[in-house]
Structure formats: C-alpha cells, structure tokens
Amino acid sequence: MKQQRVTKKQLRTIWDGLTELEQGTMTQFQAFHFSSGSQMQRILYGSTLREADTRNRNRVLKSLVQDELLMRLPRKAMPGSQNGSTEYIYTLSPLGHRLMWPESSTKMPYTPPADHKEHIEHAIEVTEVYARLKEAFCAHKIEDILYAVGEPGCHVQFETIFKEKRTVKSDARFLFTADYEGSRCDNAWFLEVERSMQGEALTIEKIQTYTAYEATLSRGDLMPNVLFVAYTPAHKAFLDRLFDNYALFARNLFHSAFIDNAVETMLT
C-alpha cells in the first residue's frame, strides 16, 4: 500500500487490525524512533530473560515488518556493556509514520534518516537509556513512568525573560516517580547523549539554553535535571568542567554519566 493512497479510513482499519501488543510496539516506535529487538523487548517486558517474551517480540516485529509498518535495518553494535554484540535495528516505515500521525496528510512530523549511520547509532543509545529505565521500573526501583519521549516530542519551545524565542532540544525527556526515604517524589530529566566532543561552544550553548529555560519557570514548576551521557572519562571530565564554569547558580541541575550508569544517576 503506497503512502499517498492510504485514506484515514484505511489507516483506522489497519490500526484496528493490530493486536494490543502490536499497537503498543508501534506506540513505542512513535516515541523512540529506532530500536533493536532486545531493546524493544526490555521496553515492553522489562527483561530479555524469558524465552516466551523473546518469541513474542520476534513474532510482533516480524509481523509489523511484513505489514510494511516497520522497516528492518542492517545490524548495529549495541551500546554500553552490550558493546560488541550486534542486532538488527527497526524503525517506522513511511506507512508506519502515516499510521501514527494520521492527521499529518501532507508532511510527516519527523522523518529520521534511516540510512544515516551516525544518526542511527546515536538514536539507539537514547533508546538504550529508556530501555534501562523500563528495567528499573520492572525491578521496582521506580514506582511509575509518567512520561517518556524522544525527539522531537521532547523539545520545548519557550521565550526567555528577554523575550527571545528559544528551544530546548534534548534527546529525550523523562518523568517518573520513585521512593526517596519513604516519600513518593516526581523525578524529571532531560537527556543529552553525546557520542563525540561536539565542541566547547556548542556544549556551552546547550547549558545556557537549559539555564535560560529554568529562569522562565514559575515557583512550584518542576525543572527537569539534565543528564549528559559521556563516552570516555576525558569527555566526562570535559562536561563537568563546563558545568562548573557555565551553569553558575544552576550547577546542581547538571549531571554527567556513562550509559551503563545513566539510570542509576537519575535515581540518586
């Protein structure tokens, strides 16, 4: 079925024909556009240990690819402690995009470059943090995940106190509840996954955008913390130095971590 020939009625028929698990899988791809099979299994089930869950996710992914709602991309190395293992990567097809944004009849709200190697590798690292957050939820380290979305849904447009229009362009945004010393607390985070030294000026600009956004919030508004995921010890030290020098009175908002301890950092 070609995208331009699919009516809204046909899209509704396609959606209604999906199982609940297939619909849930498509909704996850709407929020985080690239995922491996094991990442999606952890997002849906919180673990990759049960063989029955592995069979279910393989069946669902295969069915969605056959229905041309997902595309299966070449194998990529998995991030973090899984580095070295490779898996196929999945993303929404053009028809899948049309299905998830049926009101966008002329232009898709987000069309990721499926053939862009660096973009995909960055995207699956963002998804990896979310998959680990879901594992923490299933392990009862988190009470509830209230909000989790990647780009561009996590972007926040705002007007500074000087009437300048700016946008927080984080890689993801999370809101979850967790127990801290017997109290149930909301915990909000912006996520920045950096795979290279992007340059001091660009990182400083990001820090200043976050601090400018905080300045616009009213008393009682929840300002998310900001977690930068570093890729080497030298990169982490570089980030911490910039936080010290440029975050000023908002220094406590900024944190750095490696991908293997990103969730633990958000929980402490």
Write a structural description.
By secondary structure, this protein is α+β, with helices and mostly antiparallel strands. It folds into 2 domains: 113 residues, Arc Repressor Mutant, subunit A, CATH 1.10.10; 128 residues, no CATH class. The chain is 42% helix and 24% strand. It is built from 9 helices and 10 strands. The strands form 3 sheets. The protein has a 5-stranded mixed sheet with strand order 4-7-8-9-10, sandwiched between helices. Strands 1-3-2 form a 3-stranded antiparallel sheet, sandwiched between helices. A two-stranded antiparallel sheet has the order 5-6. Strand 5 and strand 6 form a beta hairpin. Helix 3 runs parallel beside helix 6 and helix 7 packs across helix 8. The radius of gyration is 19 Å and the shape is globular. The model has no long low-confidence stretch (mean pLDDT 90).
Structure at a glance:
The protein is an alpha+beta fold and 268 residues long. The chain contains nine helices and ten strands.
Number of strands: 10
Structural class: alpha+beta
End-to-end separation in angstroms reads: 49 Å
Tally of domains: 2
Q: Determine the mean pLDDT.
A: 90
Low-confidence stretches: none
Calculate Rg over CA atoms. Answer: 19 Å
H and E order: HHEHHEEHHEEEEEHEHEH
User: Percentage of helical residues?
Assistant: 40-55%
Largest sheet, if any? 5 strands, mixed
Q: Which sequence of strands runs across the widest sheet? A: 4-7-8-9-10
Number of helical segments?
A: 9
What overall geometry do the principal axes of the alpha carbons give? Answer: globular
Instruction: Give the percentage of residues in beta strands.
Output: 15-25%
